[in-house]
Every structure is written in C-alpha cells, then in structure tokens.
Specification:
By secondary structure, this protein is an alpha/beta fold. Helix content is 36%, strand content 25%. The chain folds into two domains: 166 residues, P-loop containing nucleotide triphosphate hydrolases (Rossmann fold), CATH 3.40.50.300; 62 residues.
Length: 246
C-alpha cells in the first residue's frame, strides 16, 4: 500500500509538487504521467526517502518514510530512470550484495529465477562495466525485486530495453501486482501505461489534474474508444499547460 497525503515539495522558492494526495492499494498499478517538469521524479524520490517532503505524509506499507525510513525501505523496490551499478562487480555479485543489504537468506534460487526471467543467465559473471545499457537496466530491476518488495516504484522502466526485454519486464510487473504489490510507473510511454496500469494520475506543473482508475479518467475526458485513447486524453488533460515548463 502506498499512501500520499497533502504532499508538497519546494526547492527553495520553487514549488515542484503542491498538495498531492493519492493511494495505491495492493495489486494496483498506478501510471504517473505528465509533461517534463511535472513533478513525477520528485514524487518518486520523496516516496523512497531520497529527498524530504516540505510538508505532507508519505507512507510505504503503512510506514511513514520520514519517521520510519528503515521499515519503509524494507518494503520498497525503486528503479530510478538512470540506475547506477558498481562497474567492478559482476551481475551475480550485485544480487549477492543486494541480498546481504536486505538480509535475504537463501537468495540464490530467487536470484537464478530473476536472471532467467530477464535473459541474464549468460551474463551472470560479467562485470557491470561490460553490460549494455538495457542489460544494466535489467540488473537494476532484478536487484530491486530480490527482496520481494510489496511496493515498487519505476521511473521510466523500459528505457534502453529491446522488444523481448520490454515484454519480459511487463510480464514481471503484472506478476508482481498479481502477487499483491502496489506499483507506480512513471513514464512518457503512454501505450505502456495504458496497457499495464489499472489506475492513472496525471500531474502537471506539480498539481494533480486527474486521479482514478484508468477507465474513470479516460471516461472523464471522453476518450474511451479507439486504441490510443490515453494519448488523446493526455493532450486534452495537459493542453492548457503545454507552455508551462521550459
Ligand atoms: N534539486 C532541484 N532543485 C531545484 N529544482 C528542482 C530540483 N529537482 C527538480 N527540480 C524542479 O522541479 C520540477 C519537477 O521536476 P521533476 O524532475 O520532478 O519532473 P518530472 O515530471 O520527473 O520531469 P521529466 O518528465 O522531465 O523527468 C522541475 O521544474 C525541476 O526543474
């Protein structure tokens, strides 16, 4: 469960996110969309405790990220838009290191399964330095899944992945949701968001423009037909603010 209540984030005098409230229940996948500078990454970074909120409450699996950061982070998997790996560690060493950090005992079987699911088995002993961008992304996702988080936050999860990788990650995300994880995906890939997400939050200039189930939001703006209804709805929902951010 993810709960955000009256969240505001200011960087000095600039308000990046203003009075944002939403929840993501177990099994739900929330698509977080909005133009560049809307406040998506700021929201995800605050939810995982990288930056503090200016005001409001954010909790992960009932743990307040400010008051109980360790408990909150134990339940959390975060995949940033530019995952950083250790150049001098192999793929397997990343998984072992993550298992140690999260105190996952007997991690080997889960780690093998993740390598298999993401087509990384033959790269098990390869240094991160020698992986392609897409492979690095998949290692970061495998590490984030290893401790079986009940809350997962993705910032542009498919950057750099090939079509097979995209399919594998989509399947993995659906499986995690079916197993009861609450998931947020921030992405500009509206087709991905529409295909995967059960709920939608449209953010623009730091404010919530729409929040609800995918069909509620699309119905709200009169775009329930056709194959690219989210794309059409997105432009309707954000058109007033298209000039808002340079
Ligand atoms: N550390 C910072 N200091 C000052 N302003 C910041 C900082 N980080 C982000 N901002 C500003 O906050 C606003 C929201 O940025 P954020 O990165 O959250 O947007 P975003 O929706 O993730 O954008 P994008 O789609 O481009 O990734 C932007 O105007 C950005 O310039």
């Amino acid at each position: 469960m993810i709960t955000v209540t009256n969240f505001t984030k200011r960087y000095n005098d600039f308000t990046a996110v203003r009075d944002l409230s939403f929840t993501v229940a177990p099994g739900q996948i929330l698509g977080l969309v909005g133009p560049n500078g809307a406040g998506k990454t700021t929201t995800l970074r605050t939810l995982c405790g990288i930056i503090p909120p200016s005001s409001g409450q954010l909790s992960i699996a009932t743990h307040d990220i400010v008051k109980a950061p360790i408990a909150a982070k134990r339940s959390l998997g975060y995949i940033p838009d530019d995952p950083r790996l250790f150049d001098t560690m192999t793929v397997w060493e990343h998984l072992a290191f993550t298992a140690a950090a999260y105190r996952v005992s007997d991690f080997e079987r889960s780690a093998e399964a993740l390598l298999e699911a993401f087509d990384l088995t033959n790269k098990r002993d390869t240094l991160a330095h020698n992986l392609s961008r897409g492979m690095r992304q998949k290692v970061a996702i495998a590490c984030a899944f290893l401790h079986d988080p009940t809350v997962i936050l993705f910032d542009e999860p498919l950057t750099g992945l090939d079509p097979q990788g995209i399919r594998n990650i989509q399947q993995a995300i659906r499986e995690r949701a079916r197993a009861g994880a609450a998931i947020i995906i921030s992405s500009h890939l509206l087709s991905l968001v529409e295909a995967l997400c059960t709920h939608l939050l449209v953010l623009n200039l730091g404010e919530c423009r729409r929040f609800g189930t995918m069909s509620e939001v699309l119905g709200d703006v009169g775009h329930t037909d056709g194959n690219s209804s989210l794309e059409a709805a997105y432009f309707t929902m954000t058109k007033d603010d298209a000039q808002g951010e340079a």
